[in-house]
From TrEMBL:
Gene: recO
Keywords: DNA damage, DNA recombination, DNA repair
A biological process from GO: DNA recombination
Top-level taxon of origin: Bacteria
This protein's record includes keyword Cytoplasm: no
Entries under InterPro entries matching the protein: ARFGAP/RecO (IPR037278), DNA_rep/recomb_RecO_N (IPR022572), NA-bd_OB-fold (IPR012340), RecO (IPR003717), RecO_C (IPR042242)
Designated name of the protein: DNA repair protein RecO
GO cellular component, one term: bacterial nucleoid
NCBIfam families named in the record: reco (TIGR00613)
Functional summary from the UniProt entry: Involved in DNA repair and RecF pathway recombination.
Record-stated family: Belongs to the RecO family.
Keyword Transferase annotated: no
All residue ranges annotated as the DNA replication/recombination mediator RecO N-terminal domain in the record: 1-80
Alphabetized SUPFAM superfamilies for the sequence: ArfGap/RecO-like zinc finger, Nucleic acid-binding proteins
Length: 258
């Protein structure tokens, strides 16, 4: 087997036996791969910096089409230090890593998702709004789960302006004129639907211009949760963690920021 060099984002590590690790990496060139790292707990192991959570690097190893791959070395190691040092950012980053891991099968070549994840982590690490980054990631990731709602216009008449709500019956948004056609529409806050429609097609470069009130963020969260519950059915521990963060986030903030 030839050694392969590929950029990769660490998804998670798991202890294996006493001194070794299993390491899952989303590689740019070969999709998600599970690597076996012998002696990972050994002192002064040169791979240690590349095996820290929230790290991107060029990983060097033997990539197999079946079973475990083997990690030999790493270079160009970049740690997302702001995320590593902030429990709230780490919560959102872990959620995005888990979502990416769930969205595609192992060994599936998906450089677009790789770069989308890289961009999201980079923006979080640069102190942009983690909630908005996560929302954009969630909405645009739906297609990887085989879900393609109609966001651009009313699914009934094609209207693009005005107040909208989400309808499972029509697999997309419907304008106010047609709300009566679906008694079971989400009854979402129209402001939340407005921003979710925006998130479905926005690029991350535009994120700096978005400032949302806490109540709008909460309304967006409720609609996205309904979408994921209905269409995706994931129950990630990291999602439960960020849901709970709001309850104790203010307690941990310095007094002058409360």
């Amino acid at each position: 087997m030839n050694l392969v060099e590929t950029k990769g984002i660490l998804l998670f590590t798991r202890d294996h036996k006493e001194k070794d690790k299993l390491v899952k990496i989303f590689t740019e060139s070969a999709g998600k791969q599970m690597f076996y790292v012998k002696g990972a707990h050994r002192k002064n192991n040169p791979l240690t910096p590349a095996l820290l959570s929230y790290t991107e690097a060029t990983y060097i190893g033997n990539i197999r089409s079946e079973g475990l791959s083997f990690l030999n070395n790493a270079k160009d190691i970049h740690s997302f230090r702001k995320i590593q040092g902030d429990i709230f950012l780490a919560g959102y980053a872990t959620y995005l890593l888990n979502l990416a891991d769930s969205a595609i099968d192992d060994r599936v070549y998906d450089p677009n998702l790789y770069h989308f994840l890289h961009e999201a982590l980079q923006l979080m690490d640069a102190d942009n709004d983690a909630e908005i980054i996560a929302n954009i990631f969630e909405i645009q990731l739906l297609q990887r789960f085989g879900v393609s709602p109609i966001w651009a216009h009313c699914a009934v008449c094609g209207q693009t302006e005005g107040r909208f709500d989400y309808s499972s019956k029509y697999n997309g948004v419907i304008c106010e004129k047609h709300w009566a056609l679906d008694d079971h529409r989400y009854h979402g806050d129209p402001r939340a639907i407005h921003f979710i429609r925006l998130f479905a097609q926005i690029s991350y470069e535009q994120i700096a211009s978005i400032k949302l009130k806490p109540e709008t963020k909460q309304a967006i969260r409720q609609v996205i949760d309904l979408l994921y519950d209905e269409y995706v059915g994931l129950h990630l521990k990291s999602k439960k963690f960020i849901d709970q963060m709001g309850q104790w986030q203010d307690i941990l903030k310095p007094k002058d920021q409360r």
